[in-house]
UniProtKB/TrEMBL annotation:
GO terms for molecular function: lyase activity. NCBIfam families: PRK07849.1-1 (NF005886). It comes from the Bacteria. SUPFAM superfamilies: D-aminoacid aminotransferase-like PLP-dependent enzymes. This is Aminodeoxychorismate lyase. Pfam families: Aminotran_4. The keyword Acetylation does not apply. Signal peptide: none annotated. InterPro entries: Aminotrans_IV, Aminotransferase-like, BCAT-like_C, BCAT-like_N, Class-IV_PLP-Dep_Aminotrnsfr. Transmembrane segments: none annotated. Keywords: Lyase. Belongs to the class-IV pyridoxal-phosphate-dependent aminotransferase family.
Length: 294
C-alpha cells in the first residue's frame, strides 16, 4: 500500500542544465500545512496540475503528463517547467508509492501574491478505489458547458485546453449529475457538440471505430485517451478525432469515460437511456491500462 508523501520544489528555469536537482527539493509532512496563506493557487486557483496514475510502483505515462504540464504552463503564461527537475521529483516520490494503485500530483502555481516566483510541489498518495466504476459502469447525464464550439479560438483566455487548478465548475457539474441521479456528466457545447467529462475524456465506439472529440474543441487532451488509442490501433481498430453531436451519443455501440486514475469506466446510461455495455471488452481495456505504460 502506498504511503503519503509530499515534496516542495524550488522550480528551476527550463534552461537550467543541472543533472542533480536534489537541493531544490524539500520533503515535507504531507499532513501538515505547507503553503503560504497568500498562495494564488488557493486564493484564485491560479496554477496548473497533473494527476498521474501509479500501478505497482510504475508511474504511468510520465512523458505525456510532463508534456501536458509544459503545454498548460504555456497557455497560462507560467514559466516553462524544467522537465528534468520534475522527472527527478517523480523519481523521489516513486520510492513511496508502494504496491497497488496510487496517484502522484504535480502542482505548479503562480506563487504567492506579489511574490517573485511560482510555487511548485508534488504529492503522492494511495488512489481511490475505482473497481466498481470499472466493472459495473457509470450512469452519466449531458450538461450544457455554456459555451459554443467557437469559444476556444475566440476566447483563449478561458484556458480551455489547460489543466488549471480552477476545477470548481467541474466539481459543480459532478454534483449536478448526482442530483439528477447519475454518477458523472458529459459536457456538451451550446451548439450540441460533445466535449469531455468534468474529470475525464469521452471515448465512443461505432462498430470497429473508436472516436473522441478533438482537443481543439476546447477540451483537455487526455493522456489516457492517447494511450488507449495507441492500444486500440495495435489491436486493429480504427481511431479518430471527430466532432460528435450530442444527439449521436446514444447511437454509439459503447462509451467510456477515461482518465489517469479511474482508467476506463464504461457508460451504462446517458440521460436515463440505457447503453449497451461489453463488460469483457472494458475489462481488456483496463487490463491494458493497468499494465506498465510509458
Ligand atoms: N478532461 C478533464 C477535464 C480532466 O480533468 C481529465 C483528467 O483529470 C481528463 C480529461 C483526462 O485526462 P488524463 O487521461 O490525462 O487523466
Amino acid at each position: 500500500m502506498a504511503s503519503r508523501f509530499a515534496l516542495m520544489i524550488d522550480p528551476a528555469a527550463s534552461d537550467d542544465l543541472r543533472t542533480d536537482f536534489a537541493d531544490s527539493f524539500t520533503v515535507v509532512d504531507p499532513t501538515a500545512p505547507a503553503l503560504n496563506v497568500s498562495e494564488l493557487s488557493t486564493q484564485r486557483g491560479d496554477g496548473i496540475f497533473e494527476s498521474i496514475g501509479v500501478v505497482e510502483g510504475h508511474v504511468q505515462e510520465t512523458r505525456a503528463h510532463l508534456a501536458r504540464l509544459a503545454h498548460s504552463a504555456q497557455l497560462c503564461d507560467l514559466p516553462a517547467p524544467n522537465l528534468a527537475q520534475w522527472r527527478q521529483a517523480i523519481a523521489l516520490a516513486t520510492a513511496h508509492t508502494g504496491s497497488g494503485e496510487g496517484v502522484i500530483k504535480l502542482i505548479l502555481s503562480r506563487g504567492v501574491e506579489h511574490g517573485p516566483a511560482p510555487t511548485a510541489w508534488l504529492t503522492s498518495a494511495p488512489a481511490p478505489d475505482f473497481s466498481a466504476p470499472r466493472t459495473r459502469g457509470i450512469r452519466v447525464v449531458t450538461l450544457d458547458r455554456g459555451i459554443d464550439s467557437g469559444a476556444p479560438s475566440r476566447a483563449p483566455w478561458l484556458l480551455l485546453g489547460a489543466k488549471t487548478l480552477s476545477y470548481a465548475v467541474n466539481m459543480a457539474a459532478i454534483r449536478e449529475a448526482k442530483r439528477r441521479g447519475a454518477d458523472d456528466a458529459i459536457f456538451v457545447s451550446s451548439d450540441d457538440v460533445v466535449l469531455e467529462a468534468p474529470t475525464a475524456s469521452v471515448i465512443l465506439r461505432f462498430g470497429d471505430r473508436f472516436v473522441t472529440p478533438a482537443p481543439a474543441s476546447g477540451i483537455l487532451h487526455g493522456t489516457t485517451q492517447l494511450s488507449l488509442f495507441e492500444h486500440l490501433a495495435e489491436r486493429g481498430f480504427a481511431t479518430d478525432y471527430e466532432t460528435v453531436s450530442a444527439s449521436s451519443l446514444r447511437q454509439a455501440d459503447g462509451a467510456w469515460l477515461v482518465s489517469s486514475v479511474r482508467l476506463a469506466a464504461p457508460i451504462t446510461a446517458i440521460d436515463g437511456d440505457e447503453m449497451s455495455h461489453d463488460a469483457e471488452f472494458s475489462a481488456s481495456l483496463n487490463q491494458y491500462l493497468l499494465s506498465p505504460r510509458d
